[in-house]
Structure formats: structure tokens, C-alpha cells
Amino acid sequence: MHEQHLDRRLFLRATAATGAALAVGTSLGAQSAAAAPGGFPDYAYVRTLLTPSQLKYNPTGEIIFPTIRGVYDKLANPLGRYYLYYAPHDAPGGICLAYGNSLEGPFTEYPSNPIVSNKWSPYYSVSHVSSPHVLWNADAKEFWLYFHGENTTTRLARSADGIHFTYDKVVLSASMLPAGTTETSYARVFRQDLPARGARYVMVFMLNNTTNHRDIYWGWSADGRTWTYDQQPLVRHTDVGAVNIGGPHLLYRNNSTYVVYNKDKESGGDLMITEVGNDFSKRNHLGVFYNSRSTAPENGRSASPSFGTDGGVPYMVYEAGERLAGSIAVARG
């Protein structure tokens, strides 16, 4: 599984391969008969990958925000072909790792979790750290971890092996967005060229403000470290009839860019999709990307998806279940 970059040249090279893991966001290889909006595969739940009660590191009985990464083509001696990052949200949180050889599992908990905690002297001491998004930065040949703590601040740490990280800097804070912003968190970063903005990386994240309604915002960067942020939402909660939206993820298909994100359970609990275009100027709201089942483990809510392929088969790893009471599951397209 290649990194979830959106670089077109790498995308085209990857999709030309046969019998190998392809660029994420594609559905080449095995497909279901139906299709989601935008021509994406119609994902179907396969199994639960991680349940809090079965984990050794389980301070709060809940885990959120999975990020799946193929590491077999990046590391000489990885613990498994795939690394799955996740975290509890509530204090103290903690960035965690599991590893496995198939996207359908099983995954083994890393014995020394958390790999990043809520105290990292002399850089910070906060109530919690959570929402790990790990980017394979091909330019630096490093794993770049973006994570939040507190909810107002997103930080960057860097690693050669995907396990042991070195602190870098704050990359996003509420002070960088409009007055009244109270949360800037759940960020994911992707490799995508925006020549008109001099950018090579794009970030999508959730923003809350004093109205207590959450929207999707975005920013761009030349190097993944120093960012400029649009002061207007990429997707507003009112655009899709929701009280709150969050957990955004970018996908690339048919020469266009899309953002997939979750509605809060009060607004249906499904994953939604909006076409934003390669320059992020479109706002084509396409509806439900993934319809959450009413039965366990989803119980009417799916959130924070991460995407990958295994042998050409597309997969989605995501939160399944009510917020702070769910598990990490996998669906196959």
C-alpha cells in the first residue's frame, strides 16, 4: 500500500501496476457491483480490528481516529506489512500503534504503547494527545506524525522507523484561524501539488467555534511544516444538513479531488463526500459515501476513515460505533 498522497504522477504509476498494492483511493482490482458517489467503491463492513477492552494500553475504554500505513516497502525490518495508528481521546490519550500483515487483520498491539504521550519534556504537557495521522514523507524519507493536544493545537513529530518519534513543532492552532475559533483538530495531511499556491501538501481538519458547530477547514504548505490556512470553511455543516461534521480525509479519482467526512450521529452518523476539485474551488456535495448500519459494531455511526489497498482490493479503516464508545473496524470495497 502506497502512502495516501495525491501526486498524479505517482498515482498513474501505481495504478499501472498489476498484482501489487495500489495507490489509496483507487478501486482497481476487485470491486463490488455497486458504487458510491464519485465512482468510488461501495464499501462493506468486514470485521472489527481493535476493541478497547482487548488492549493492554486502555486508559479510558475508548479509541478513535485510525490511520493505516503500508510500511513493507519503506522499512527493512518492519513489525508487519501494515502499521495501524490510533489513540484514546479522553485524558491522557496517547498515540498508539498496532501492526499486521493484512488490512483485514489480525493486528497486534505494540507492547510499549503509547509511542507518544501527553507529556513530552520540554515541548509540552497537556491533558491528552490524540488523532494520529501519519504521512510517509517521500521527500524526507520519514514518517511524519500529525496529532492534537489540546484540542486547540496540532503538532508534528518525525520518525525514521514509524515507532520512535522526534518532536518537531506546532503546525496548527486556533490562533491561526478566525476569531472565536475554539478547536482546530483531527488533521490529516496529504501530498498534493497546488502550483498556484506554491504548495506541495494539503491539510484538512475540523474547526469548532463559539457557535459550537463543527465544520471542515483546509490549509496548504510547501514543506508540510509551515502552513497557510483558508479562513473560510471547505465544507460547512449547514451544507449537508448536519449539526457537526468532522474526521475529513482526501481522496483522488477521475482527475478530481474529494473530501470524505463524518456527520455526527444526531445528523445520521454516515460518511459523506464532497468534490472540491484539484484546486479546491468546487463544492459539489455528492451525498452519502458510506451508510452506517444500525447494528453492531457501527450502531448508526461511522467516522474518521483511512484508506488503503491490499493486493489491488480497496479497504477503509474507520471508527465504528458511538463516539468514545466504539472500536476500529475495516470495510472492503
Provide a descriptive summary of the structure in words.
With 333 residues, the chain is mainly beta. The chain has a single domain, classed as 5 Propeller (Tachylectin-2, Chain A). Helices cover 3% and strands 44% of the residues. It contains one helix and 22 strands. The chain has one helix at residues 8-16; strands spanning 44-50, 64-70, 82-87, 96-100, 108-109, 119-120, 124-125, 130-137, 142-148, 153-159, 166-173, 181-194, 199-209, 215-221, 227-229, 245-253, 256-263, 271-275, 284-290, 302-310, 313-320, 327-332. A four-stranded antiparallel beta sheet has the order 1-22-21-20, with no helix packed on it. A four-stranded antiparallel beta sheet has the order 2-3-4-5, with no helix packed on it. It has a four-stranded antiparallel beta sheet with strand order 8-9-10-11, with no helix packed on it. A hairpin with an 8-residue loop joins strand 3 and strand 4. The longest helix has 9 residues, at 8-16. Residues 1-35 form the signal peptide. This is Secreted protein.
